[in-house]
Amino acid sequence: MCRKKIALVGAGQIGGTMALALAQKQLGDIVLVDVVEGVPQGKSLDIMEGRSVINSSAILSGTNNYADLAGSDVVIVTAGVPRKPGMSRDDLLGINYSIIEKVGIALKETAPNAFVIVVTNPLDAMVYAMQKVTGFPANKVVGMAGVLDSARLACFVAMELGVSAEDVQAVVMGGHGDTMVSFYNCVSVGGIPLPQLMNKETFDKLAARTANAGGEIVNLLKNGSAFYSPGLSAIKMAEAYLLDKKSVLTCAAMLNGEYGVKGLYCGVPVVMGAKGVEKILEVSMNDAEKAAFDNSVKAVKGLVEWVDGHSK
Ligand code: TXD
Fold first, then answer.
1. Is the CB of 82 under 6 A from ligand 1?
2. What is the pTM of this model?
3. 151: Cβ below 6 Å to ligand 1?
4. Is residue 293 located within the same domain as residue 153?
5. Where are the extended beta strands (E) located within 68-175?
């Protein structure tokens, strides 16, 4: 059992999923924070009561007070609203920005040394806003999207080939929106490059489903967005940091000239360990992939300009 303090800001669908996964993995003690009275307290108590069933000694608590974030080692932020059918992630910009700003101001006061993982949409703009509001080093503020998008593509490839998803590794980069880019040459199936097993036409269909995978679930749920796989993806990032795993994960990281981009957060593969983002890995792209990636960066830029125009 690792006795680090992990704060989950937002105790909704993803927050609750993460609390359970963290307790099962015993990655630390868990504080759930939300503005709704009773929900963080109720969810943490519910999991506390199940600990003897899952053999966990994690301690969970729930609060409506940001002061309880004090001394957190890791903070995962899902505070905000999810989309409903017919909405794009970008439609959440205004409402979620004001929430991220509040949480960021609180984090600056209470947990200046934390590793911060932002999950709230529109992801790339929200993680940019969080870094800007807190002023924390960019390697300690990251966004979760690429782990999820890559897992979705890996799932669809595994389903198509009839193989185990655990043997498929995939890379989906760019902004977490309709313009995200799936890389044909970066998928491996048990170490075998995908182009040896699947033609590009089939892959393109799976890539299109990946770009729309969040919307597919929103349309099914009708009253919210995906939460199990997003929650598990964020925990994978927290684990890489807490256990200094040097994991290669795709996440929204601040680019400083890599891929020809400077000063923007965008989904790229990184090495994640005890220093947070320890290195950004540069994937070589063909002309079509580079054009698609640049188009995705352009979409992120538009949202970030809005944030810059609204931040104090
Ligand atoms: O890949 C990704 N990054 C994502 C992101 C994948 C799926 C969903 N993604 C986004 O995560 C989604 O669009 C939302 O913006 C967030 C959270 O999704 P979730 O499904 O967990 O939403 P809920 O269930 O509505 O939970 C949000 C909680 C809710 O309990 C609110 O009361 C709370 O956030 N909330 C706050 N907590 C703390 N502080 C403030 N200010 C606050 N405002 C709302």
1. yes
2. 0.98
3. no
4. yes
5. 74-77, 115-118, 141-143, 168-169, 172-173
Residue to probe by mutation, ligand 1, list 33, 119, 210, most atoms within 8 Å of CB: 119
Q: Give the range of the structural domain holding residue 28, as residue numbers without chain letter.
A: 5-143
User: Using a 6 Å cutoff on CB, does residue 107 contact ligand 1?
Assistant: no
- Assign 10 to helix, strand or coil: coil
Q: Pick the catalytic residue: 83, 89, 176, 236? A: 176
160 and 232 co-located in one domain: yes
310 is catalytic: no
CA 33 to ligand 1 center in whole angstroms: 12
Closest ligand 1 atom to residue 145 Cα is 1
Of 143, 163, 194, the position where a domain reaches its end is 143
In this structure, the answer to whether residues 167 and 268 fall within a common structural domain is yes
Mark whether 102 and 150 lie in a shared domain: no
Q: Tell me which residue has its CA closest to atom 34 in ligand 1.
A: 79
Q: H or E segment at 181? A: strand 181-182
**Do residue 185 and residue 99 come from a single domain?**
no
CATH of the domain at 77: 3.40.50.720
Amino acid of residue 308? D
pLDDT in tens, 20-71: 999 999 999 999 999 999 999 999 999 999 999 999 999 999 999 999 999 9
- Residue 202 and residue 113 in contact, taking contact as beta carbons nearer than 8 Å: no
pLDDT digits (tens, 9 = 90+) for 96-122: 999 999 999 999 999 999 999 999 999
Same domain, 9 and 22: yes
Distance between CA atoms of 64 and 30, rounded to whole angstroms? 14
